[in-house]
Recover the amino acids of this structure.
């Protein structure tokens, strides 16, 4: 009798909340959608969606999961992009090394930002991260023009991969699946990261920093690591971007890149895992289609963004999750 | 290059004039942040609106001074409208939502201006009174730059007196410290916020209006200025008027001298100065303890 009760209790014990289960399923649905995406939209758009979705997820590691407002993610993406392109351009190395270099580049910028601003909160962190990214933009634009080619952008030769299978990255389809596999692996890695004890500590910092400190966690160290993880994944996205564009361009470092990733993330929902991915898909799809009808894209996106903040601050996926939560609540035990 | 003392003095004056623009801009940003806890991402956008409003007002009435005053009033009213209709609904939520609302406005408005005025820059002439330069010995003193420095000093003094001596200023300072207590005293804090936002936006518009003759008036002229205003308040300490003033003047000198000695580095120097200050004094020059 007692044993049966124990078994029942064990069966009733749910290690994961319904949100986690839902997000986990959503992740697989979106990744499955990724397999057929180049047949639904154009191949370049599909590739762009994957790269920027990875970037948005990396960005949300700070904004949504740790609660730090970063407005300088262009710095991580752009330096990642340049690092990846430069080792190919000047060093003649292969694609895999280039991606590693891109991650290192993103992480390096993250270390600089973290050293200067890890202890600053809210608006201060936003301003400092934005300023550092803008500094990198101007550095690439003129003092370092000799190496970055400035506004002409650093152009790459056609690339191919030989390991583990041969891929010609000039072919749009092969490029897409190359990018897709890397992005999917990175998404899974981030899922693993956020559902580890470290990931839960991040959420704790977002919800109540003082309490987490009182629990004995080293807040500064956790935030520092969180910024670096964000930089690593952003740098990887930058490396993929350089391969996709065939060049490292200085516009990647421009502050608008940071602004766009903020909009994509908020559109999908900052307090969710898959929100940024979904937001990026919707954002880039809309941009591609609206710009066919009007050249006033910025006006529309600005107005829609302001309406979104007022009406659906949790974003598209966040609002869906909220509605499901409301429906569940009466029956929840 | 031979650095004679004339050239150095000349650069100092140029730097002071540029610094004056930064000071006006950053003090507005600082007031808004101190009072409303909102990081106004659209600050440069209001600066841009100030320049365009000056252009429109001057082409309507023909007088520079009337143009500047009209511009400040019009842009303050636009700011008040934005605060009352959109921003006010977001107070009390996470700090990021008002920030994002301002960011949305900074994307939206320049495109509207682009639609009305086109991409080509508009020219605002120097007022006839302040054209050219005066000469003292070998020194060339551009009149307009001198005017900017004087204007900044007057505005700062007026702002100081307004904050310290008038009852509205006292209420604003009190609301910056403790909005709940001020509310309990029977003062309509919501209206104080609107006034504070108008004041901050008005300063940005004034900066844009007086900068208009010196710079190219284009729809995206404000974007860079938002970021530079952020740098000024990070250097000076957010929420401190004295900090905004000192930070703006320092940055003006840095830009002025670096663009003389190493033009390539002039844009970068702004941010390097910020990084240096952050390493030496993380709170900024006049930053308050515990406010970050």
């Amino acid at each position: 009798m007692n044993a049966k009760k124990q078994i029942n209790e064990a069966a009733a014990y749910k290690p994961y909340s319904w949100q986690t289960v839902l997000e986990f399923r959503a992740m697989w649905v979106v990744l499955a959608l990724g397999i057929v995406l180049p047949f639904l939209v154009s191949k370049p758009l599909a590739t762009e969606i994957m790269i920027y979705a990875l970037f948005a997820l990396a960005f949300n590691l700070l904004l949504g999961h740790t609660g730090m407002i970063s407005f300088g993610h262009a710095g991580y993406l752009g330096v990642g992009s340049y690092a990846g392109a430069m080792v190919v351009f000047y060093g003649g190395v292969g694609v895999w090394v280039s991606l590693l270099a891109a991650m290192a580049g993103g992480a390096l910028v993250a270390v600089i930002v973290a050293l200067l601003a890890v202890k600053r909160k809210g608006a201060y962190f936003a301003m400092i991260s934005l300023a550092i990214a803008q500094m990198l933009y101007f550095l690439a634009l003129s003092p370092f023009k000799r190496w970055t080619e400035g506004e002409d952008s650093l152009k790459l030769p056609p690339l191919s991969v030989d390991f583990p299978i041969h891929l010609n990255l000039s072919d749009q389809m092969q490029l897409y699946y190359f990018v897709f596999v890397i992005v999917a692996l990175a998404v899974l890695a981030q899922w693993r990261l956020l559902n580890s004890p470290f990931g839960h500590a991040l959420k704790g910092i977002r919800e109540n920093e003082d309490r987490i400190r009182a629990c004995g966690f080293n807040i500064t160290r956790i935030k520092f690591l969180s910024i670096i993880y964000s930089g690593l994944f952003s740098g990887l996205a930058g490396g993929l971007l350089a391969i996709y564009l065939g060049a490292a361009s200085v516009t990647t470092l421009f502050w608008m890149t940071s602004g766009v990733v903020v909009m994509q993330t908020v559109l999908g929902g900052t307090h969710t895992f898959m929100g940024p991915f979904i937001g990026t898909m919707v954002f880039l799809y809309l941009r591609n289609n609206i710009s066919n009808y009007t050249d006033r894209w910025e006006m529309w996106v600005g107005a829609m963004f302001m309406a979104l903040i007022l009406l659906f601050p949790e974003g598209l996926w966040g609002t869906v999750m909220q509605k499901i939560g409301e429906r569940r609540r009466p029956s929840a035990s | 290059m031979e650095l004679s003392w004339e050239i150095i003095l000349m650069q100092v004056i140029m730097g002071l004039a540029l610094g004056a623009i930064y000071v006006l801009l950053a003090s507005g940003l600082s007031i808004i942040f101190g009072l409303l806890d909102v990081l106004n991402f659209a600050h440069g956008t209001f600066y841009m609106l100030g320049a365009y409003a000056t252009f429109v007002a001057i082409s309507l009435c023909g007088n520079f001074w009337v143009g500047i005053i009209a511009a400040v009033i019009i842009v303050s009213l636009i700011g008040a409208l934005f605060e009352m209709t959109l921003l006010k609904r977001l107070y009390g939520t996470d700090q990021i939502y008002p920030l994002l609302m301002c960011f949305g406005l900074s994307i939206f408005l320049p495109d509207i201006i682009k639609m009305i005025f086109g991409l080509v820059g508009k020219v605002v002439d120097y007022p006839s009174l302040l054209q050219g330069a005066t000469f003292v010995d070998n020194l060339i003193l551009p009149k307009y730059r001198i005017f900017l420095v004087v204007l900044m000093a007057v505005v700062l003094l007026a702002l100081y007196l307004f904050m310290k001596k008038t009852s509205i200023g006292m209420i604003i300072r009190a609301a910056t410290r403790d909005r709940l207590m001020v509310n309990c005293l029977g003062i309509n804090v919501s209206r104080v916020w609107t006034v504070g936002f108008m004041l901050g936006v008005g300063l940005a518009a004034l900066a844009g209006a007086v900068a208009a003759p010196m710079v190219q008036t284009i729809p995206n002229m404000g974007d860079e200025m938002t970021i530079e205003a952020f740098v000024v308040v990070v250097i000076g300490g957010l929420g401190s008027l004295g900090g905004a003033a000192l930070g703006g003047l320092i940055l003006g000198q840095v830009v002025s001298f670096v663009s003389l000695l190493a033009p390539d580095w002039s844009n970068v120097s702004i941010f390097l100065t910020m990084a240096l200050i952050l390493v030496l004094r993380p709170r900024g020059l006049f930053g308050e303890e515990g406010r970050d």
